[in-house]
Amino acid sequence: MKIGAPKEIFEGEARVAMTPDSARQLQKLGYDCAIETGAGEAAGFADALYAEAGVEVIKTAAALWKEVDIVAKVRQPNDTELKRLTKGKTLISFFNPGGNEAGMEAAKAKGANVIAMEMVPRISRAQKMDALSSMANIAGYRAVIEAGNNFGRFFTGQVTAAGKVPPAKVLVVGAGVAGLAAIGTSTSLGAITLAFDVRPEVAEQVESMGAEFVYLDFEEEQQDGAATGGYASVQSEEFREAQLAKFRELAPEVDIVITTALIPNREAPELWTKDMVEAMKPGSVIVDLAAEKGGNCKLTVADEKIVTDNGVTIVGYTDFPSRMASQSSSLYATNIRHMMADLTPEKDGQINHDMEDDVIRGATVTFEGEITFPPPPPKVQ
Ligand code: NAD
């Protein structure tokens, strides 16, 4: 069978779902590989590098979609791409199944099988295919780099002949995958790093990375995420008030705030209010990684960078992984390659779409003319 990656058509998207390295691995699984001309260019992978890796370079998207049995993509397909699906073809891509009924109906009508990368179950065995985590890791790292780029001062404290420089103080709100990556990046650059999460079980992880966990003066325990499969759920009003009071206290002290707080299938909680922004020092920076879901900061504008009247920069970009397209393409293409390894137990270049396999079942959203989303919970944790 042949697997191919078209050039992403979402405006500004620089990632690609197959790299020359991942193609070499896919060939070891028995597959022929193809890309559309220029598919990897924006991520730093020229056509010649693919050709050297034995990848066929196909001139147009239409021809690529026609020729391959498996299409690997990054972004959810648009209408033109959905029309290119045919019976028995497999698409592996982010697909947003929860908010893409029309896409699932289109794939079902065509008889195509769709594997949605955001649906890979978060169980240990599937970590190597977990594209949400690999992309969140990059977003967290890049958020700190972006903050540094907009912050006119050092992260680390210095004593120099020209004067003493205090270290920057960074607050990371939300210590999931992206938040932990931001914490690690911030501490390694030498900033004093504080972190808060509603799940107290992450405190130890935060502290082991050299950051300080922010506890609330609150009678109830910070929520135990074990009840919700490790994810946060909505907070009580009292808890929220205590959280906001703590943030209000910290706002004048911190130089950089990175917010990453999300609750699955909901708009992002608003945690950094207008008065907190107003209380921050001029030159401070907020990077809101929740911008795509409405933002954790009241003043965030998705996809934009704004500077407030009191001189606070608020970055609301929603494309951090694409801004590091070489790295993110390498990791995403590796996630896809591992998914393909799961789908090809015999390494014979033939897909064995085993719906009894927890990971494959969990991620499959259409199969043989049926919509198979949402999946049953995985049998193994
Ligand atoms: P996420 O992107 O859904 O949320 C980011 C963080 O925001 C979470 O830590 C959440 O607790 C926090 N948050 C939500 N509301 C908040 C609030 N009001 N204030 C402060 N913080 C708030 O999270 P994620 O990065 O996808 O990770 C969620 C969970 O999944 C974690 O327990 C993580 O360890 C787990 N996980 C497991 C695997 C695996 O086993 N393969 C892989 C990745 C993540």
Automatic annotation (TrEMBL):
<dbReference type="GO" id="GO:0008750">
    <property type="term" value="F:proton-translocating NAD(P)+ transhydrogenase activity"/>
</dbReference>
<comment type="similarity">
    <text>Belongs to the AlaDH/PNT family.</text>
</comment>
<dbReference type="GO" id="GO:0016491">
    <property type="term" value="F:oxidoreductase activity"/>
</dbReference>
<keyword id="KW-0521">NADP</keyword>
<protein>
    <recommendedName>
        <fullName>NAD(P) transhydrogenase subunit alpha</fullName>
        <ecNumber>7.1.1.1</ecNumber>
    </recommendedName>
</protein>
<dbReference type="GO" id="GO:0005886">
    <property type="term" value="C:plasma membrane"/>
</dbReference>
<keyword id="KW-0547">Nucleotide-binding</keyword>
<keyword id="KW-0560">Oxidoreductase</keyword>
<keyword id="KW-0997">Cell inner membrane</keyword>
<comment type="function">
    <text>The transhydrogenation between NADH and NADP is coupled to respiration and ATP hydrolysis and functions as a proton pump across the membrane.</text>
</comment>
<feature type="domain" description="Alanine dehydrogenase/pyridine nucleotide transhydrogenase NAD(H)-binding">
    <location>
        <begin position="148"/>
        <end position="316"/>
    </location>
</feature>
<dbReference type="GO" id="GO:0006740">
    <property type="term" value="P:NADPH regeneration"/>
</dbReference>
<keyword id="KW-0812">Transmembrane</keyword>
<keyword id="KW-1133">Transmembrane helix</keyword>
<keyword id="KW-0472">Membrane</keyword>
<feature type="domain" description="Alanine dehydrogenase/pyridine nucleotide transhydrogenase N-terminal">
    <location>
        <begin position="4"/>
        <end position="139"/>
    </location>
</feature>
<keyword id="KW-1278">Translocase</keyword>
<dbReference type="GO" id="GO:0050661">
    <property type="term" value="F:NADP binding"/>
</dbReference>
<keyword id="KW-1003">Cell membrane</keyword>
<keyword id="KW-0520">NAD</keyword>
